[in-house]
Design a protein that fits this description.
This protein has an eight-stranded mixed beta sheet, with helices on one face. By secondary structure, the protein is mostly beta strands. The radius of gyration is 15 Å and the shape is globular. The relative contact order is 0.22. It has one domain. The longest helix is centred in the first third of the chain and has 18 residues.
């Protein structure tokens, strides 16, 4: 998937009804891994929170990215939310960090682990500001560095958490398979 980001915008990575542990040795349990766990009310609520946050922080108020890590990684869980129309304009797959598994595989598609600890190879939950654009080794060779805005992702810059494309990611949902897992980044 090719995305160009021209504005400072907000990326919210969240997991509803589950606790974000700060240590990578405690696995998350998902309520529903067999069916698509998309909840439009939950997405709408997160979009409202994001809009208020963008307004308060003087971020771009045209759109934001919402990622619901409660959804199986083989299903669309990355949403582009248009603040003007108050609806999702696009959705796609997004990977998460591999934790102790081999990267580029899908071993934790049902039970990803989230952590803010450097070296954990885990994605971190929370709000991110999309910072500068850089050159990536993956996909279309473009990456966007992410700045963590919460205590749950405050090490994002130090850990080189980035948003980038990857040729291994499918353009279509692949459930029951999961998306390939990255070294520790958010991948589309």
């Amino acid at each position: 998937m090719r995305i160009t980001i021209l504005f400072t915008c907000l990326l919210c990575v969240f997991l509803s009804n589950c606790k974000n542990d700060s240590t990578p040795n405690q696995k998350q349990t998902f309520v529903d891994t067999v069916k698509h766990n998309f909840n439009p009310i939950k997405i709408t609520d997160k979009a409202k929170e994001a809009k208020a946050y963008c307004k308060k922080k003087k971020f771009n108020e045209d759109f934001c990215f919402l990622v619901d890590m409660n959804i199986h990684s083989g299903l669309n869980r990355f949403f582009i939310w248009d603040f003007k129309t108050n609806k999702i304009t696009n959705s796609m797959l997004v990977g998460h960090g591999c934790y102790r598994n081999r990267w580029s595989k899908d071993a934790s598609r049902d039970n990803p682990v989230f952590s803010n600890i450097d070296g954990s190879h885990c994605s971190s939950l929370g709000k991110y500001k999309i910072a500068d654009r850089g050159v990536s080794e993956w996909g279309i060779k473009v990456k966007y560095n992410l700045i963590g805005l919460d205590s749950s992702n405050s090490n994002a810059s130090k850990r080189f958490i980035v948003l980038h494309s990857w040729e291994m990611m499918s353009e279509n949902e692949i459930f029951p398979k999961g998306s390939p897992e990255g070294w520790q980044s958010n991948i589309i």
